[in-house]
Specification:
Strand order of the largest sheet: 1-7-6-2-3-5-4
CATH topology: Undecaprenyl pyrophosphate synthetase
Strand content: 15-25%
Distance between the termini: 28 Å
Largest sheet: 7 strands, parallel
Length: 266
């Protein structure tokens, strides 16, 4: 995994005008070669709220409000798959009041955003466990996926109650339950047991908030992902930040373990 860290936060301009309703624009921007799949570790909601003297949950609400604009910025570059890390398996260890608040925010977001995303031809997928969610929340997640299942412009995957280690463990359990002979098991078959079975691996992982950890996110799928981190907190991530991430990605040399042509033996 190649790492780039943004050292300076770009200045913010005026808010971008909202686009008219319809499918998100999709196509390469200029000469940039865009990633097909961008995954985002949305870090910094709590710090954003604390800087403003607000409760942490207000930071999470601001973070949810930024998903739609960031999705639009990414699709302007031709990105077809966006995965956001919304709630990890470890986040259950946070204070009960915050966890309950996060569940309420998820319910609000599903009810408020699903139809709007559907109108923009966005397919919504859930990655992670559902057995620990309330019946009401399970139904809302299922309804959002069913409503948008035939949309084609972009796929938005929401990793909620997701952990990379747990995903691998659950996959191993299902493989054993299916009685798969060891000699038949390979990477392709194993990948079919993951939550991301029908998604390409992420080309680029962006982490906001300045941290340098993967935090148990897409551990199997990120083997050859490029990594980009910015000090910008998630609720503040804007068009200029996305432009910098895309510019950085365009300069990466992705060889997937092979040699460069000039390094090949004669």
């Amino acid at each position: 995994m190649q790492l780039h860290r943004e050292l300076a936060k770009p200045s913010k301009g005026e808010p971008e005008p909202k686009a008219e309703r319809g499918p998100f624009l999709s196509g390469p921007k200029g000469n940039l070669q865009p990633p097909q799949h961008v995954a985002i570790i949305m870090d910094g909601n709590g710090r954003w709220a604390q800087q403003r003297g607000q409760a942490r949950l207000e930071g999470h609400r601001a973070g949810v409000s930024n998903i739609h604009p960031v999705l639009e910025y990414l699709t302007e570059y031709g990105v077809k798959y966006v995965t956001i890390y919304a709630f990890s398996t470890e986040n259950w260890n946070r204070p009960r009041q915050e966890v309950e608040g996060l569940m309420a925010i998820l319910r609000e977001a599903i009810h408020r955003e699903t139809l709007a995303l559907h109108e923009r031809d966005v397919r919504i997928l859930h990655l992670g466990r559902t057995d620990r969610l309330s019946p009401e929340l399970q139904e809302a997640v299922a309804d959002a996926q069913e409503l948008t299942k035939n949309n084609k412009s972009v796929t938005l995957s929401v990793a909620f109650d997701y952990g990379g280690r747990d995903e691998i463990l659950q996959a191993v359990k299902r493989i054993m339950q299916d009685g798969t002979p060891p000699e038949q098991l390979d990477e392709a078959l194993f990948g079919q047991y993951l939550y991301t079975a029908h998604l390409p691996d992420p080309d680029l992982i962006i982490r906001t908030g300045g941290e340098l950890r993967l935090s148990n996110f897409l551990l199997w799928q990120s083997a050859y992902s490029e990594y980009y981190t910015t000090p910008t907190l998630w609720p503040d991530l804007g068009k200029a930040d996305i432009a910098m991430a895309m510019e950085s990605f365009s300069h990466r040399e992705r060889r997937f373990g092979t040699l460069r042509p000039e390094d090949s033996p004669v």
